[in-house]
Amino acid sequence: MKTGILVTARLKSTRLPMKVIKPIIGRPMICHMLDRLKLAERPQKIIICTSTTAQDDPLEEIATQESVHCFRGHPDDVLLRLTHAAEQFDLDIAINCTADNPFADPVYIDRLLDFHIEQGNDYSIVEGLPFGTFSYALSYSAMVRACHIKAETDTEVWGGYFTQTGLFKVGTLQVTDPEVRRPNLRLTVDTPEDYELVSRIFDALYINGRVFSLKEIVKLCDQHPELARINSHVVQKPAKPIRLKPRAEW
């Protein structure tokens, strides 16, 4: 069974321009994320999935520099882009995370992949980790079917096509480890405040050549509650409603 991590990445962000390549400790943020993803043992490859627009050329260059793969596809239809990437790299199961989540956790990537396979799911999620550290598991056949039933080409947020249609077997891996179960801790990067928090975490924990763990991040934030307050007021943008083709076309 072939598995891989598909990293959704674009440089078109508006609230924090060029956020995924903003520097942290002298390197683009996405490079630190790739360091973390490379610690996952179960996936066999990592693919940056970006668009065909010239604006995103630096992401292909970073993929080469960091010795990971790159796929370039539809600028706005993220679900289609991911599906085409899975097809090109012959993946049976894809793990997806987005490049604005530099702390995507490799431990739970491995656990999620095992859970997804054991449960025979089409789509699996993790519940209980800090926001921005979890990932998603998708079976390629389910990705193809979701693309077939959708009537929307703007699919930046696409989970609803799996969870709201009743067509797919969906599973949730519950996080019970008290050292990392912090669902209210925001560790994604979408605003200047988010970027400040992530930068301060790196300032406190980063040692060259070593990837600090999610447990260390959570412990730091527990010991210094002023850190979590930096972005506690940030409101996550609501997901765009899904649109489906007429049922007769499914």
The total domain count is: 1
CA distance, first residue to last residue: 27 Å
Mean pLDDT: 97
CATH fold category name: Spore Coat Polysaccharide Biosynthesis Protein SpsA, Chain A
Strand order of the largest sheet: 5-4-1-6-8-7-9
The DSSP helix count reads: 9
> How much strand content do the residues show?
15-25%
Number of beta-strand segments: 9
Main beta sheet: 7 strands, mixed
Question: What does this protein look like?
Answer:
This protein has 250 residues and is an alpha/beta fold. It has one domain (3-178): Spore Coat Polysaccharide Biosynthesis Protein SpsA, Chain A. Helix content is 34%, strand content 16%. It contains nine helices and nine strands. It has helices at 29-37, 57-65, 78-88, 106-119, 140-149, 160-163, 192-205, 214-223, 225-228; strands at residues 3-8, 23-24, 27-28, 46-51, 69-73, 93-98, 123-127, 136-139, 170-174. A seven-stranded mixed sheet has the order 5-4-1-6-8-7-9, sandwiched between helices. The two termini are 27 Å apart.
Q: Can I get a quick summary?
A:
With 250 residues, the protein is of the alpha/beta class.
